[in-house]
Amino acid sequence: xxxxTHDNDRRNFLQRSVFGTAxxxxxxxxxxxxxxxxxxxxxxxxxxxEVDVLVVGGGTAGHVAAIQAGRAGAKTLIVExxxxxxxxxxxxxxxxxxxxxxxxxxxxxxxxxxxxRESVELDGGKLPNFSKVPQRHWQNxxxxxxxxxxxxxxxxxxxxxxxxxYYEFPQAITKAGDHWQVDCVGFGTRRRVRxxxxxxxxxxxxxxxxxxxxxxxxxxxxxxxxxxKLGSAPSPGREQxxxxxxxxxxxxxSRTATVANLTGRKSILEKARxxxxxxxxxxxxxxxxxxxxxxxxxxxxVNDYTSGRIFDDAISYAFYPVDLHTKTxxxxxxxxxxKVPTIPLRALIPKGSRNLIVAGRCVSSDRLANSGLRVQAxxxxxxxxxxIAATLAAKAGTTPLEVPFAEIKSLLIEHGQIVPGQx
Length: 423
Known about the structure:
Largest sheet: 7 strands, mixed
CATH topology of the largest domain: FAD/NAD(P)-binding domain
CATH class of the largest domain: Alpha Beta
Structural class: alpha/beta
Number of helices: 10
Strand content: 15-25%
CATH superfamily of the largest domain: FAD/NAD(P)-binding domain
Radius of gyration: 23 Å
Distance between the termini: 75 Å
Helix content: 25-40%
């Protein structure tokens, strides 16, 4: 039997089943079509890119950094080992990224807020009233549709001229004159990237570690969260999912992340069997709260954070309680009224490095400060600042810390970032 004959027989059978057997109430899901454009080098296992800025990691900070670099005129490539952008908000399922406001006004805006706002508006959702100071910090969380957010982030990358490489990750980094040479590997792909600047948005500063710069972390890390829904279908952008604490979750390498995911899924399966409820939703992986942090040119202490210290080179605000999760749960310590922490550019620069900057939860900070800094809104602000600093450094042929801070600040404001001390 030929393939075409088989297809026709199958189609005829389905049509008879639907239209000739009304009692069965059988329905077929509608099918639509789209054609993927073939990559010009799809048949070649080896690919070469020459870019100004390489962003590694497309999570909370990374996709914002890449969009910003692209919009500021840098030729930009983002490498992400997963299958989508957004990180904690999308793959992790924590689709209530906060906090963007403090004490009755918005303090974090820019590209991250643009994405959050547009995803809510497209979904017909509701934005909180930032002019009202809530009794509890979580009451001003913004609920987003994680699925819309991921594809909107891709659209904005495309509009900014950012190339995306999914399913790849760097294996080696070497200095080649005034450029970096970064060798990445994916299934069926070996990619060599020559770039002027690297932005490490891997969450655990993995490129910083690969280059041999010092990192720090605690012996015991905060639990991860595996998000799921039993019983009824979730309503994206309208509610939180069920949360399972995965104690001992460690994203340090592929082996430890595998153990965390297997542990979480096993427990959720046991819950489904025990309760008899249908499993209606399961995120693809554990959301990790804590991993390696860099030793930066400066470190944000918990006293800096809670006192609302305004650093001379502050590039963004942050606002969240000190939020350390433990085996007994979490008891957030809200900031005192009027206090709004800031994030300095130097905390994004690995100590002693050049042409390298980080953004996200690996920011140079002590553990308690990091428990507030690690949330999405703060990481988005860091990502946008890293994108600007790396772009200006690439254009000037220098390193981010040598770019005049006034230039970084001015361009951030031009692109919608709320910068501490701006006029």
